[in-house]
Amino acid sequence: MVAPLVLLVDDDPAVAQSVAFALETEGFRVRRYGSAEALLEAVEDRVGEGAGLRAARCLVLDYHLPGLDGLALLNRLRAASLAGGAILITTHPRRGVCEDAARVGAVLLEKPLIGGALLEAVRDACGLSRLASEP
User: Which pLDDT tens digit goes with each residue over 91-120?
Assistant: First the structure.
């Protein structure tokens, strides 16, 4: 069985590295991007890298990104037919961000990501929690 692919976008290299490490340790494949634009450029490459990205089971997106915020990025990714589960991560969510995230079907997690909250959310987004609990 091929490990689920997670696309991770965070402009803080230390956060991206630690999140990727945690997910890879649990058996996920992770593709990291330092900006919304970098991921969008990769997705638009329909022959090369972008073709494989459509198989992503989960999107982990920093909410506070330069240029395009995580919610706007998620909307662009949905328009490009990336249908994986979505998790927005942020340090200080402004009023209404939780509701905005829920409206587009995303889970919102606050940084620092302590404990198993992120891993549980990624498993849920990939459909792995449901599979593990089924007989």
Answer: 888 878 888 998 989 999 988 876 788 889
